[in-house]
Amino acid sequence: MNQKIILLISLVLIIALGAIGFFFYANRPVKSPSRNIETVSEKIDLKNQESPAKSVYRISQNQSRVEFNINEVLNGQPNTVVGTTNQVAGDILLDIESPPNSQIGAVRVNARTLKTDSSQRDGAISRFIIKSDNDNYEFIDFTTTQISGLPEKIIPGEKFNFQIIGDLKVVKTTRQVVFDAVFELTPENNLKGLAQSVVKYTDFGLTIPNVPFVANVEDRVILKIDFLAEKT
What we know:
Strand content: 35-45%
Structural class: alpha+beta
């Protein structure tokens, strides 16, 4: 057989095997969480903050949800991608007598558990976008640096609005983010809350791979956390 033909066949086989290998890599199941989210979240300790007016509320995974929304054009049609997980943890210290002295502890999300309506998309997000498949980037962290606009008085059953300013870390990049929040202390003495922010994924150094049937992915991402925190 002509040597050039043999080389050509060999090259085609190498490319084909590489494509098959990449297909299986890209479509294999997303890694499972390495640890329970509750065991790796920072806890607020009341020992040095003794006051009957202060209570710590811990986010309940069973009754909470983190979500991201991003718009794209899928197969020529506008589409909103929604990713969600309940694997979020964090503590909130509420000072009922002096609400401005309240604190919000570090909030941690297991990025591996974010799910959309497509397992293939989930794999792409985990492996190529937020890289949560890598053990170093399994978690997304938010650290509060300032709370603005808390009321002077909290009345159970009444909602109150304020802003949460802090540092959001995704993969290797940390950026300041402002969340608009509305909280409510329920009659059952739980703390309910919804916080929302809009960020650009490019600000975090993230890139979205080019896919033939996906076009015009917006840079704008809506982030939400809808939670219930139970008194500890």
